[in-house]
Design brief:
There is one protein chain. By secondary structure, this protein is α/β, with parallel strands linked by helices. It has two domains: 43 residues, no CATH class; 196 residues, 3-Layer(aba) Sandwich (Rossmann fold). The chain is built from nine helices and six strands; from the N terminus they run H-H-H-E-H-H-E-H-H-E-H-E-E-H-E. The strands form two sheets. The chain has a four-stranded parallel β-sheet with strand order 1-6-5-2. Strands 3-4 form a two-stranded antiparallel ribbon. Strand 5, helix 9 and strand 6 form a beta-alpha-beta unit. Helix 5 crosses helix 7. The protein is globular and about 50 Å long. The relative contact order is 0.16.
Length: 243
């Protein structure tokens, strides 16, 4: 009976893949096969950040002999440490754009498998109590229909066995998109942008999840609020980081 059930499940999944093909997040073409989430050609082109990265923010270093990037040497940060899966360049840029603005919510599952494969040891070594997706303001959420960071956090949490803190951290200020601002204006833009719902989060160690890391302004603003609420150790993981 169990064998028949397994065959039925396999057949149903196969039919679903035919009717609703899984699209590779990097080329957006249907992925052949029953279980693959990323096409084989794109897998050969992807270059995760595996070495020569900043020991603070995780950005790819221009000089392998350096320990920290120029930004982290010049500007202090409120988080403990972070890692990013890719450099923010093509085809990653276009992929994240579709994920955020073109409704490609299904990309989260493929992204999470790469995060688990490349950064799973980093996540597990931290022993986080929870993952915290960077929240969206309600107006932006209503317009987009979903929070891409929350989708990503949910899939990562499922793979690494860590709960996701949803709704307890709120974005109360509808900030200007940070890509339009310089560093100083980003920091001012994010002042009082986040708040904790409740007295405190009662957690010791968390990992913030987001799609892109640039100057660290969002991570610092969120880290400040989390530390005020009693969180002692704050890390982050993102899909990509600027250069």
């Amino acid at each position: 009976m169990n064998k028949i059930k397994r065959v039925f499940i396999w057949l149903w999944q196969y039919i679903l893949r035919l009717v609703y093909p899984v699209r590779c997040p990097f080329c957006d073409e249907p992925v052949p096969g029953r279980e693959m989430l990323i096409c084989a050609e794109c897998m050969t082109k992807l270059r995760p950040v595996r070495d020569s990265y900043c020991m603070k923010c995780g950005k790819k270093l221009d000089r392998p002999e350096d320990e920290f990037c120029a930004d982290c040497v010049k500007y202090p940060h409120l988080y403990d440490r972070g890692r990013s899966l890719f450099v923010y360049e093509e085809p990653v840029k276009a992929s994240i754009y579709r994920f955020k603005y073109a409704g490609r919510k299904e990309y989260a599952r493929a992204y999470a498998t790469l995060v688990e494969r490349e950064l799973g040891d980093f996540v597990r070594s931290i022993k986080p109590d929870a993952l915290v997706p960077v929240p969206l303001h309600r107006k932006r959420y209503q317009k987009r229909g979903y929070n891409q960071a929350e989708l990503l956090a949910g899939e990562i949490g499922r793979l690494v066995g860590v709960p996701v803190l949803r709704g307890q951290v709120q974005r109360v200020k509808n900030t200007i998109p940070l890509k339009m601002l310089e560093r100083d204006r980003r920091q001012n833009n994010l002042k009082k942008a986040f708040k904790i719902n409740g007295n405190d989060v009662k957690l010791n160690t968390i990992i913030i999840i987001d799609d892109i890391y640039t100057t660290g302004s969002t991570m610092d603003a969120l880290s400040a609020v989390l530390r005020e609420a009693g969180v002692r150790r704050v890390f982050f993981v993102t899909l990509s980081a600027g250069q």
